[in-house]
Write a structure and sequence with these properties.
The complex is a heterodimer of chains A (306) and B (102).
Chain A: E1 9-13, H1 17-29, E2 33-37, H2 40-49, E3 54-58, H3 66-76, E4 82-87, H4 92-101, E5 105-108, H5 113-130, H6 132-138, E6 142-149, H7 159-170, H8 175-197, H9 202-205, H10 209-222, E7 230-237, E8 242-248, H11 256-265, H12 276-284, E9 287-291, E10 296-302
Helix pairs in contact in A: 2-3, 7-8, 8-12
Chain B: E1 2-8, E2 11-20, H1 25-37, E3 42-47, E4 50-53, H2 55-70, E5 74-80, H3 82-90, E6 98-99
Helix pairs in contact in B: 1-2
The chains are: A alpha/beta (306), B alpha/beta (102).
Chain lengths: 306, 102
């Protein structure tokens, strides 16, 4: 077993049972933990449920091909997951397409075990260097960060994507856990912009995308919000095992207590209710808190154990 | 986030992959408008590969639901991921239409 292989998990994807078996054996003999999938759909399901260090995937598979799989991984799943593609064909176009889609490596069948192991070792080495920030955060008792967003540049900020990368890669949080936090962040910042900062009504919020953008841009041009900001606070406490995320705006605030009471007492869904966001935050957090007359909302979650 | 929409007879089938949030909910809104304009009387929603939905996304579905049932339409969630199923149940969306798990 090499230093690189210790506790590393590889997903092998091929529609050929014998190839999955033989590659799996090579990897297991070299100390890797191996899981397998026999088509692209199963592979996507597995990467959405488990964390893998590397995926070794065949290109020519019925249904979702290796190229389709890689494209989906990059667009919708784990942008940074290392994927080695393999093919029995010597087609240069395949190679170019694979590189463009972001394949970590490209190897030809029949697989030579030395080449495969070398490729995986090189990828893991590269990843280890990349993971320095993640290692840094793992070594702390905790950290507190505040990000102050300029509402005028809200749409350019790419807040969702930035926090997705930060939670997943820098803080190394598990996918499902990070996804739930991302939904909460999305909920909180969107409310902070639409209601808190721009003072738009519920009806205006549900305008078509183009109409809403026009309205928002109009408000931004009015210059009434130049002094306003949206503050995102992140408190990571590794010692006590929790993460708190807060979002605060400079708006009017709202009567959060009566909204919470109403949500808790309602037995049937009200299609006109506009407390779903709070209800979701309540459901997705271990603790939900409002301060500053509803201008600041904080969610707290216990960190997963392992 | 990716949405596939297809029509067959009077059934619209929609599959949502990824996270549906406030940044991309307008894409869902546009797709749902297509369903509303079509002859469809049933919308089958496949949310198995949808990893989570924000309240903006839920809001789009509920706004569509109101318009769709007024023209005699129905919605059924044919499959949903655990997290989405829990969320729809918590928000009592399953009182409005059938929500199947997995």
């Amino acid at each position: 077993m090499t230093q690189d292989s210790a506790a590393r998990k590889i997903l092998v994807v091929d529609d050929s049972v014998s190839i999955v078996f033989s590659i799996g054996k090579i990897l297991e003999l070299n100390g890797y933990a191996v899981d397998s999938a026999y088509n692209g759909s199963d592979a996507l399901r597995k990467i959405s449920q488990q964390v893998f260090d590397v995926v070794v995937c065949d290109i020519e598979m019925p249904g979702i091909s290796g190229m389709n799989f890689l494209e989906k991984v990059r667009d919708e799943y784990d942008h940074d997951l290392d994927v080695i593609l393999m093919t029995g064909y010597l087609d240069q176009d395949y190679f170019i397409q694979a590189i463009r889609l972001g394949a970590s490596d490209f190897i030809r069948k029949p697989i030579e075990s030395k080449q495969l192991l070398h490729s995986i070792t090189r990828i893991l080495e590269r990843r280890r260097n990349k993971n320095d920030i993640s290692n840094f955060f793992q070594c702390l008792h905790g950290s507190r960060m505040v990000f102050e967003i300029d509402p005028m540049r809200f749409w350019q900020a790419g807040i969702g994507k930035t926090f997705n990368q930060f939670l997943r890669q820098s803080l190394n949080l598990k996918r499902n856990f990070a996804n739930e936090l991302l939904v909460c962040i999305d909920e909180m910042i969107y409310n902070a912009l639409i209601h808190g900062t721009l003072s738009l009504s519920k009806e205006q919020r549900h305008l078509s995308h183009d109409q809403l953008r026009k309205l928002v841009n109009g408000r931004l041009e009015e210059g009434l919000i130049t002094d306003k900001s949206i503050r995102i606070g992140l408190d990571l406490n590794l010692k006590d095992g929790f993460i708190s995320i807060s979002v605060e705006d400079d708006g009017e605030g709202f009567d959060h207590e009566s909204w919470l009471r109403r949500l808790q007492s309602e037995q049937e869904i009200n299609l006109d209710a506009h407390g779903r966001g709070i209800s979701m935050l309540y459901h997705l957090s271990d603790h939900l808190e409002f301060d500053n007359n509803g201008r600041k909302v904080t969610i707290t979650r216990a960190l997963p154990k392992d | 986030m990716k949405i596939d929409l297809s029509f067959s007879d009077k059934v619209a089938s929609m599959k949502i992959d990824g996270i549906l949030n406030s940044e991309n909910a307008h894409i869902l809104q546009e797709k749902l408008s297509e369903v509303l304009k079509s002859e469809s009387i049933l919308l089958e929603l496949d949310l198995f590969d949808c990893r989570n939905i924000s309240s903006t996304g839920i809001g789009k579905i509920l706004l569509f639901y109101k318009d769709f049932i007024s023209k005699g339409g129905e919605i059924e969630v044919t499959r949903s991921s655990n997290s989405v199923y829990e969320l729809l149940s918590m928000l009592k969306i399953n009182q409005l239409f059938t929500v199947n798990l997995g």
